[in-house]
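## tool: complex_structure
## caller: assistant
## args:
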Amino acid sequence: MLDMDDKTKIFKALGNDTRFKIFKNIFTGGYACSIDNTQPKDDIIAQATCVTSIAEHFDFALPTISRHLKELKDAQIITMTKSKNKIYIEPNIDTMKEIAECFGKLVKEYEEGVVYQFDNTK
Amino acid sequence: MLDMDDKTKIFKALGNDTRFKIFKNIFTGGYACSIDNTQPKDDIIAQATCVTSIAEHFDFALPTISRHLKELKDAQIITMTKSKNKIYIEPNIDTMKEIAECFGKLVKEYEEGVVYQFDNTK
DNA sequence: AATCAATTTAGCTTATTAGCTAAACATATT
DNA sequence: AATATGTTTAGCTAATAAGCTAAATTGATT
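## result:
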């Protein structure tokens, strides 16, 4: 269950050009991982990719992309799973589900004229 | 139709503690406007409120809240309508609808294994 | 054990953001 | 016309964020 701070962190993470692009492409499978074909894919979905292969798509230095990915991970937007010396990056669909629900409920209850609690933990 | 820049701006606006609280309360009707009872309510929905009455709920100076509200307005999250010398602030439900759809689609198409275009204008 | 590949950490600079106070502006009321 | 109310603008400071390079770390390969 995401509380208000979690949500703020998620929006902050998505509120940056570079991170939003990374996010978008991870979720849409826009990246290929150069190692996908040579590694067993058990437990790793098709979109799984690694830091270097994402960084290749940007004009920023690798450490910069690494820090952006950390922020997306800390916001629970993606997961990063170490396997050997590479890190598999995957969308965290549970978080997206919860955010989708929040906005969906917000709209629905607004239209019904119900007072909506966007965050009912506070 | 919100493009990628619009979306980034929306997330950036919501990715700040103070603004997220303002947003939440505007959408949930958490503020009362001190002038609601003395002004005709034509064309103004129940949640409509004004800058001063929002600022009263925060420990920040009025100009600070004013600037946050401007940012929410610029991100199309709220509308600000001047009527006499007061400004009526209302949720922009169309924007929320579109964001809700984005996340809803993201989740749905992800689960169906379809490659999802979060932003198909780029 | 030396090297290579993938990633993070440290330390720095520059740009942006969030807060403030004081002053200005706009409209209403007396 | 003077005052009061609601809001924004200007100009400042301090904190945060985004980028960089260089170095460190981890694990795989030779």
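## assistant note: The radius of gyration of chain B is 17 Å. Residues 16, 18, 60-61, 63-64, 67-68, 82, 84-86 of chain B lie near DNA strand C (CB under 10 Å from a C1'). Handing back to user.
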